[in-house]
Design a protein that fits this description.
By secondary structure, the protein is mostly helical. The protein is built from seven helices and no strands. The chain is 66% helix and 0% strand.
């Protein structure tokens, strides 16, 4: 590597704005966009892997609890309620990870839609101010998905079915494996907590889950995967 000249000043305007020269040179800009795309894609893939890891934990936990709980009639039913708490914790973790993942995903989609798609078939860009949007987000990164929306998406995709399975298994455990003299409400008690209160809390929890899952359809992510009827050429 050659040594910089003795009069080199990294703080001079010419050196500080050296990257701005790419703005007026199309070949330099396209080369820079290629490197930017690879970097953003790498970060997006990293956060996608983190989301998948939490998903795997949730599925394994659900399967393990169901297997253990129904392996014997003497197994306590409240273990399934502990599973509900653990799935809720995983949902919170995955919601935060999804919001971070969406930061990089949105940048990748911006480049794919306005640079690479237009290079392959020049029909015009979808967003005329894509360069401004990208530069502003690089200077001041922002989270674009609200917490409630991210949680609703993760519930719709995975956690609502898992929570439903656990609650259904808990109800089966209370009804099928309960003697007639005890009753379902009495069996639902957890220690000193009355069974009626336990059932009421679980019912309110599930109603909240349904409300978040079935809420007004959230903002559709730009470029989100979906099915199409005109896909014969890809089959």
């Amino acid at each position: 590597m050659s040594e910089p000249p003795e009069d080199f000043d990294s703080g001079s305007r010419e050196e500080r704005e050296v990257a701005a020269e790419a703005a007026g040179d199309r070949s330099d800009l396209l080369s820079l966009m290629g490197h930017t795309y690879r970097g953003e894609l790498g970060r997006m893939s990293s956060w996608r892997t983190r989301i998948d890891r939490t998903t795997n934990w949730a599925v394994v936990l659900t399967a393990s609890l169901l297997t253990w709980t129904f392996s014997s009639e003497s197994r306590p039913h409240y273990v399934l309620l502990i599973g509900l708490v653990m799935l809720s914790v995983f949902l919170g973790i995955e919601t935060r990870r999804y919001r971070m993942f969406d930061v990089w995903r949105s940048r990748v989609r911006l480049l794919e839609e306005n640079v690479f798609a237009n290079a392959l078939d020049p029909e015009g860009v979808k967003q005329s101010n894509w360069r401004t949007l990208l530069s502003e987000d690089l200077r001041e990164p922002t989270i674009k998905t609200p917490t409630v929306e991210a949680m609703s998406r993760r519930l719709r995709r995975l956690y609502a079915p898992l929570l439903t399975v656990l609650i259904a298994a808990w109800l089966v455990r209370l009804t099928v494996f309960t003697s007639s003299e005890n009753g379902v409400v009495a069996t639902a008690a957890v220690g000193a907590i009355p069974g009626a209160l336990v059932i009421a809390v679980v019912g309110c929890f599930y109603l909240a889950v349904l409300a978040l899952t079935m809420r007004r359809p959230p903002r559709r992510a730009k470029g989100e995967l979906g099915s199409t009827d005109d896909a014969e050429e890809w089959k």
